[in-house]
Amino acid sequence: MSEARTVVVVTAGLSQPSQTRLLADRLAAATARELERDGHGVHVEVVELREHAHAIMDAMLTGFAGGDLARAIDQLTRADGVIAVTPLFTTTYSGLFKSFVDILDKDALTGLPMLLAATGGTPRHSLALDYSMRPLFTYLRADVVPTTVFAATDDWAKDGSAGHDTDRDANPLPERIDRAARALADRVGARRNDGPADPFATTPSFVDMLDG
């Protein structure tokens, strides 16, 4: 088996349980399945932004993240791939989701394979993934896979896992989840994240400077 890959899931659902977390779990499971099919071990780590809401606001005011939030950011920057899922409000990502992105270092997501997904009340808002979320992460130089996944409330009613209609032709959500997971797994399998660059790696030690 090849070296293990770490996939971090960032989910911005505000309620418990939430459709956003449900979609995030489905995407994570499908991605793990695809990576295992390719011979990779997989670690999936979940960052629930709801649990860090107050800390995110503190970090915006002070410029520093501490405690569990700092550990969550460290998880994210060391991931081999990221699945980011947010509910849509007024046709765009939630304020909590955007606030979390705002406290990240501007280079934290550079080259990182990402899968974007969102939940909303009606399919009319599905294009927000491409005119709102994708430009945000393109600006941050993340490697966003072409397929995004949107789930409206009706999609869950038709979904086979909910015990209703199992015909995949009647609901494209399962197929779209599988396609997006395959795309993310391809990129995660081809690239390993060695973690953030050490800004002091080339700084000589005191011993070296005294010898010089």
TrEMBL record:
The keyword Oxidoreductase applies. Pfam families: FMN_red. Coiled coil: none annotated. It comes from the Bacteria. One of its GO terms (molecular function) is oxidoreductase activity. Keywords: Flavoprotein, FMN, Oxidoreductase. The keyword Lipid metabolism does not apply. Residues 188-212 are annotated as: Disordered. Residues 7-154 form the NADPH-dependent FMN reductase-like domain. PANTHER family: FMN REDUCTASE (NADPH). This is FMN reductase. It comes from Myceligenerans xiligouense. The lineage of its organism: Bacteria, Bacillati, Actinomycetota, Actinomycetes, Micrococcales.
